[in-house]
Amino acid sequence: MKKLNYSQKRQIILSAIAVISIIMVTIFCVMIIFMIYGESLFSAKKVQLKKAENYATLSESTPKEGVVFLGDSIFEMYDLKKYFKHKDDYINRGISSNESADVLARLQTNVVDVAPKVVIIHVGVNDIGHNVSAEDYIINMSKIITELTTKLPNCKIMVDSIYPTVTLNNFNSMNLTTVRSNDDINNFNLRLKSLCNTKNITYINTHDSLLKDDALNKTYSLDGLHLSDAGYRIVSGIFQYHIDDALAEK
To answer: How many other CB atoms are found less than 10 A from the CB of residue 106?
Structure first.
């Protein structure tokens, strides 16, 4: 430092002040974001856990040997009574924002204790949205399949594909879909299909029936991610075909 002239010293000091200022501003912004959103993020996880607890409480009074729809918001928003009339043993076990790890954690109380004859699993788009790697996702899905086939040996396990997305011209859609690209979805689905083949589990390719120009058909969606009535009618027909086929084998 002694060999530096005044101008050079001044430049170093100003650069150091600038770096420190940037660090302090970054820390301040993170604190503000946490103050605004931190509680809601924790609350969202608490809400998921509470829903899982509620499902567990219902297990004793839930009809046994039914058909369980297990998954994330796509299934939680799925009005089974509307699309499967007179099917009182079709049981909804969807929880919004669930990832594969969340589904794995609630298998015993939400599914196994109900002793279903068919389970349809739909989860994965939140793994993609929350930057869970394809490898970790497949590990979780493998554990889910293994646990269900071990504990429910007479149950038909089916895995539904992850649905495509489409970005609509509004902020909500952009927020939901920009972190869930169709390239990632296609990659996850390829791995998921391969896993199902390895495990000798039915893979239901509803994904392709919802496509238009390599994205989710806008007619089938509310926000570019979740399904509209038309979308649910499409997948319901596909599910019923596979359920009937599974029950015919028994």
So the answer is: 21
